[in-house]
Every structure is written in C-alpha cells, then in structure tokens.
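ARCHIVE CARD
Drawer: 12
Card no.: 0347
Subject: one protein chain, sequence and derived structure
Cross-reference: see card 0346
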Amino acid sequence: MTAQTLTIGKALNLGLRKAMEDDAKVVLMGEDIGKLGGVFRITDGLQKDFGEARVVDTPLAEAGILGTAVGLAMRGYRPVCEIQFDGFVFPAYNQIVTQVAKMHARSRGTLPMPIVIRIPFGGGIGAVEHHSESPEAYFAHTAGLKVVAVSNPVDAYWGIQQAIAAPDPIVFLEPKRRYWEKAEVDVDATPDPLFASRVVRGGDDVTVLAYGPMVKTALQAAEAAAEEGRSVEVVDLRTVSPLDLDPVYESVRRTGRCVVVHEAPVTLGLGAEIAARVTETCFHSLEAPVLRVGGYDTPYPPSKLEEEYLPDLDRVLDAVDRAMEF
C-alpha cells in the first residue's frame, strides 16, 4: 500500500502527471498553466517535465482553447483544457455545446471527443466578480456532455485519470475553496467507478444529497444534527450528469426525507431535477417534500457578502428541521 496525505490540488497534479505518463496523446492546455503552474498550481512542474508541446500556455481566449481542443481530439489526441475560473468558461460555451457535445453524434460515432474541461467552481475564496460561479446546470442540461464534481483528494486523484481515459467529453468541476483539504490517497487502490454516487455518512432520519464543495458542509451539518439526536445520512453524488440515483432512492426509501444542497441558485438548479426524480420514484416512501438548499436568485455577490449567500451549516440544518416537522 502506498498511501499519501494529499490536498485536492496535489491529488489533481499527481493524477494529471500519471495520465500524461500513461498516454503520450494527453495534452494540457490553458492560461498560465505552464511555467506558472496555473493560478492554483494544479499543473505545477508538468511543463518542466513534459515540455511545452504537451503543457501549452495558451492566449487568454477560452473559445480558442476549446476550438483547438476539438481539432486535437479529431486527430486522436486527448486534450485537457483548464478554464482558469468558472466565470471564464462562457466565452467557450458556444464551442462546448455546439461542437464538443455534438461532434460524436454529428459524425455518427466516427469522431469521438475525449476532451476534459477542468473548471475550478464555486465560491468561498473572497474573489472578485466572475470568479465564484456554479455553472454546472448549463452543462448537465446539454446532451453529449458528462459532468463530474469531485469533493475530496481520493476522487480528485482517480477521477481526473478516469475522465481523461474516457471516450466522451467531460466537464470536470473542482471545488476551488476545498483545494487545500487533505486526505489519505492510496495510489495503488482500485478506484470506484467515475459515474457513481457514494454514501459518505450513514443515517436513518434524513437523506442529504450534495456534490463538490457542499459535501463537507453537509457532513458538518450531519455532525451538528447528531448532537441534537438526529441521524442524517449524507450522499456524495460525485457526478451530476449522468446522475447515479439508485443509492439515493435506497436511502430515501429508508429515511423518508430528502434535502438537496448545492451552491448554485435554487431555481432550475440540479436540485430541481433531483427532487423531481426522487419524488417520482420514492413517492410512497416520502414523509415530507424533497427540500432544496442553494444560492439565491441573484448574481454572485461581492466577497464581503458571500458568507450570506453561500449555503452553510445553519441553512442545511434548517432544511433538516423543516423536513422533520412533517
């Protein structure tokens, strides 16, 4: 066993390194990812070891990055594109939804698009405008894309490698405010499947669903609820497209209550789709309506106000309390 204590950021770095060692067709592209190693240093040292042809410092042109990635994928490469911050992805949105997501179907299966689009997402770092967005619903709504949202170093290390090896385009969401969270990572272990949810804390009274940065918040809420005598089960969805909801249904049939948590605004967020599916499938087991906790229907606020905007332990506990009142 070769276990190491890694941050999410370092786990991603080592995962990228392993993928590049295993496949010479893996190419990294992004703004300042080479000599600088990226704003969050996720690609630190990779250009030095693999060269400028495989770790490419691009111009500040997200549409150009993704357009180039499409061409590389058509020629047999596996591009991994870093979008420096979540809010910077929108200039590339046209390329992602009209080319990346559709090329495989358009070519009747002859042109796969094994492209990974890495996006640090979510708030909590005191950043300026366009640096704290949660755009996952846009991509989950787009047929032809898969969307992964890791929450811990183990999933970061294995997930990035699995995403790069996959034949389909994957939007790989990284919880930027959790980059420095640590955990033991066994680099010789057999990883869980990429598109599978996981129960990360058992419980009997309420099921709380989360992904990305909100998993830690959900776990903290579960710990606080336990002090009040309530048993909260927490499920890390791990991927938001496709959704792996069988473990969720199993949990909700047992607890009878469900709360969905994400940073993105509640209206038409992933919680709405999940709530609908849980209600359709587990209707006769539910003791309360499925409740949602998320951001407000406002643009992401200035950093001094973000603690008021972001879902926290108290807002999750409030939803748990409301679910238990039925």
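Annotation on reverse: The chain has two domains: 3-186, 198-325. DSSP finds twelve helices and 14 strands in the chain.
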